[in-house]
Amino acid sequence: MYTHNGEDVFVIDGHIHLWDATEENIVHEGGEQFIQCFYDYHTAFTPEEEQWDMDTYRQYGAERMIQDLFRDGYVDMGIFQPTYLTDFYDEGFNTTDQNAELAEEYPERFVLNGSFDPRDGDEGIAHLERLKDDYDIQGVKLYTAEWRGDSKGWRLDSEESFRFLEKCAELGIENIHAHKGPTIRPLNRDAFDVGDVDDAATSFPDLNFIVEHVGFPRVDDFCHIATQETNVYGGLAVAAPFAQNRPRKFAEMMGELLFWVGEDNLLFGSDYGIWEPDWLVPAVMNAELTQEERAEYGVELSPDVKRKIMGENAAQLYNIDIEEKKEQFRDDAISQEFELGDSYEEASAD
Amino acid sequence: MATTDPPDSPGSTNHSEIAHSSVTTDKSVDLDAIRDRLDHVHDPELDRSIVELQYVEAIEIDDGAVTVAFVLPTAWCSPAFAWMMATGIRDEVEVVSGVTSVTVRLSDHMHGDEITTGVNQRRSFDSVFEDAEDGIMAVQQKLDEKARFARQHSAIKALQQGGLDPDQIAPLTRADIELDFSSDLAAVTVQDGALTVTVARDPLAEYLNKARETGLVADESDRLFADREGEPLASDPESFESIVRDARLAAANIEGQGAICESLHESRNGVHFD
Predict the structure, then answer these.
(1) Helices A219-228 and A195-203 meet at what angle, rounded to 10?
(2) How far apart are CA A233 and CA A289, in angstroms?
(3) Is A345 left (phi over 0), alpha (psi -120 to 50) or beta?
(4) 3-class secondary structure for A155-218?
């Protein structure tokens, strides 16, 4: 657990991956380009002394992951966001079934999300039902801009998509994480469009729509939607590492996001293994708005606001009782393995 | 043929950003003139010059034949945006005195070959990328409109810093602004000529360039400022403020994306931004 000025901050990392980009798993040149592009993101925003070599980056493995998150990275819980990319990777890049290996070993520490693609039709519905049956998933990660055959992606507000969203509502899969932002082949004007979230969020008020990467490079369009819809949230992966190497840009971005989206609708995510929480969590927690920035945006990035962003908001979405979790983590497998139990003891009242 | 280090520019444009690119020239064409033209080519999404963004990798000049190689922050950058920059390079450089031909080369991009060949053969975007849904002009127009709106924020800030109120700013037309290119100031006339104030020139000049490109401000009588959709700015303080905030957000989006691209560019292509 992270401690900030003597106060506990329960960290739920809302965006983590366990991927396999080994050469043996790559079946299309897009797979190699994809991991190389990820690696550019890694080196672009990671302090030099924290950067990984490419071999480690291709497959860091479960053991390293739990160390990086829980032992070294102040993370209390993590939410797996799968990325299938089965056209590029033989066994998939980062599928729910792959993630499940770790999530089932430490179920108290992980939330395991699924995925769907409405172009899969009946088969896709069956897949979603299977994921619910097998893992009791509460959320899905979606890639609307993914190309498949002749299709250049799909829209969340399409008829086919609504069929899947209805299925999610029926199964109690409440959290819809939509990846907007860097796409495979953004040939078309609307490849980054976030407008489809608007109609979907209005039509499904009982579902929560978390726009990952706060819609970059369409943060403005995302903000317009989020300011109107209370069930639209922003995931901070990609924006968060600004805190490390471009702190004023980060402050400016947080000013805008807090103004438009609000402190209750923003979720921290490291995007692990693109970035590591051991340096990212402190960077975000130490971020401050100047007096001038507070006046400009009319918002605060106070410790209370940061606590919401770092964990409390995600806890609300995923029905996580933080106090109950702290009690559980005094003596769970991870705390035993890494001797973390003491950090979950209640501070003794002097 | 001689290889030279790029000389310091005597002109107003700061060319230090281009220093990393390799230059080969036989002096048949003025290198500075080429650089000045390249500075006019913008990344359409980031609304910044490709020179400032350090995309230009190499310039070769051989008896009037000019080759410009450029590289983008990722191999996945939008082919449509890459196409606009490649045609921009071609069209800007070929008007330089002494240039007999221009060859553009996009390196390390997943569609580098198609774009390089297509632009040099003067083919259309649609014929090279048959599966693209939108015409290149529609994409360009949309990005220009976003850039116009984002630039409006700095322009209005400059006017407010000059002491003007919303009800003075909202009705301004092109005729009310006089840009002084001998200084860094602009003169703004308000209240039917009753009052003239001076403000910082650059934010207004940069805004007006983009407002002209998008067609929002074509004539002297055209209103200067508009909301995101192009509707004229209202002067009541509340709606004025909400449009200023929206323009601030548009600018933050472009600048934020710019910061991501700069970092990726540094990481992948070894350039350095201050």
Answers:
(1) 20
(2) 22
(3) beta
(4) CCCCHHHHHHHHHHHHHCCCEEEEECCCCCCCCCHHHHCCHHHHHHHHHCCCCEEEEEHHHCCC
* Contact predicate A326/A344, CB 8 Å: yes
pLDDT tens-digit map of A211-257: 999 998 899 999 999 999 999 999 999 999 999 999 999 999 999 99
Give domain limits for chain B.
2-133, 145-226+239-261
Nearest-CA neighbor of A224 among B153, B214, B228? B228
d(CA A233, CA A178): 10
Of A187, A242, A256, which has the smallest distance from its Cβ to B131's Cβ? A187
H or E stretch at A91 = none
Of A40, A152, A185, the CB nearest to B264: A40
Do the strands A77-80 and A232-235 form a parallel or antiparallel pair, or are they unpaired? Answer: unpaired
How large is the ipTM? 0.93
**Chain A residues with CB-CB distance to B252 below 8 A:** 219-220, 252-253, 256
Which of A189, A191, A217 has its CB closest to that of B142? A189
Q: How far does CA B213 lie from the centroid of its chain? A: 11
pTM (predicted TM-score): 0.93
| Residue-wise pLDDT tens digits, B68-83 | 999 999 888 888 899 9
Which letter, b or e, does each residue of A138-152 get, where b requires 16 or more Cβ atoms within 10 Å of its Cβ? Answer: bbbbbbbbbbeeeeb
Q: Which CATH architecture has domain B2-133?
A: 2-Layer Sandwich (3.30)
The verdict on a CB contact (< 8 Å) between B75 and A37 is: yes
Distance from CA of A15 to the nearest CA of B (A): 19
In angstroms, the first-to-last Cα distance of chain A is 21
Mean pLDDT for each consecutive 10-residue tract of chain A (350 residues)? Answer: 95 98 93 89 95 98 98 98 90 96 97 96 98 98 81 88 98 94 51 84 97 92 95 96 94 98 98 98 97 96 98 98 98 98 73
* d(CA B267, nearest CA chain A) in Å: 5
Rounded CA-CA distance B209/B226 in Å is: 15
Residue pair A274/A46 in contact (Cβ under 8 Å)? The answer is no
Give A96-119 as a 3 state SS string.
HHHHHHHHHHCCCCEEECECCCHH
Minimal C-alpha gap between B64 and chain A (Å): 34
